[in-house]
Amino acid sequence: MSRLPVTLLAWHSRQRHCENGECEMKLYLETTAPNFLFADDAPEKQNATEAFFDWLKISPDKLYTSELVFTELERTPERSLRQKLLTTLANLECVVFPITREAQGFSERLVAEGVIPDRYRDDAVHAALCVLHEMDVLVTWNMKHLVNPRKIEAINLVAMRAGYRPIRIHTPEEVMMI
Questions:
Q1: Nearest Cα to 30, choosing from 119, 147, 111?
Q2: What is the rounded CA–CA span in Å between residue 27 and residue 65?
Q3: What does pTM read for this prediction?
Q4: Within 10 Å of residue 56's Cβ, how many Cβ atoms?
Q5: Which of 95, 104, 161, 154 is nearest to 128 (CA)?
Q6: What number of other Cβ atoms are within 10 A of residue 144's Cβ?
Q7: Residuewise pLDDT in 10s, the chain (178 residues)
Q8: What are the sequence ranges of the domains in the chain?
Q9: Which in 33, 78, 121, 147 has the greatest CB count within 10 A?
């Protein structure tokens, strides 16, 4: 038997939610997912993100996001871009999570344990929401603090020590291949 890290064993053993032959995952859309729809300066990521949003239209997966994503999008300086981003997200059928004390507390733990730097506290909140709500995948283009094998492992170690299941963190492009 192979010796996979505990978090990887949990990932491999997790079952998708299946009903009538249709399987679905719980996908949390972080702020960078819709942002790259309009990132003309990153055409490869933009194309992958467009394909992902088209794929979502036929996917059985359930979509989630948070009040934090809307808050971050509201900070977009360019008015027309801000409106496109907010409209894109509003047009998706997403469950929107509030930022609870529990989520704030767990995000503080991620920062306190050095998993996510203090100045990127919002990234810790996204990860916390995903852990607390047992998301299957956090979907993001944030390669530095989220889609990073060391960060994923560290987030999941903190989660499991607190009694939660591990989560997966992938780019939109990767999610289409799961």
A1: 147
A2: 8
A3: 0.88
A4: 19
A5: 104
A6: 11
A7: 333 344 444 443 444 566 666 678 999 999 999 999 999 999 999 999 999 999 999 999 999 999 999 999 999 999 999 999 999 999 999 999 999 999 999 999 999 999 999 999 999 999 999 999 999 999 999 988 899 999 999 999 999 999 999 999 999 999 998 8
A8: 24-175
A9: 33
CA nearest to 149, candidates 3, 11, 50 = 11
Quick one: tokens of 163? 């009694």
8: its two tokens: 């990887």
**H-type alpha helices, the chain:** 6-13, 32-35, 43-56, 67-74, 79-90, 101-112, 121-132, 149-161, 172-175
Using DSSP's 3-state secondary structure scheme, residue 176 falls into coil
| Cβ-contact 152, 169 below 8 angstroms | yes
Q: What is the dihedral of CA 108, 110, 112, 115, to 10 degrees?
A: -150
CA distance 168 to 131: 10
The pair of three-digit structure tokens given for residue 114, joined into one six-digit string: 């050095």
**What is residue 1's three-state secondary structure?**
coil
Residue 155, both tokens: 């987030």
Type of residue at 6: V
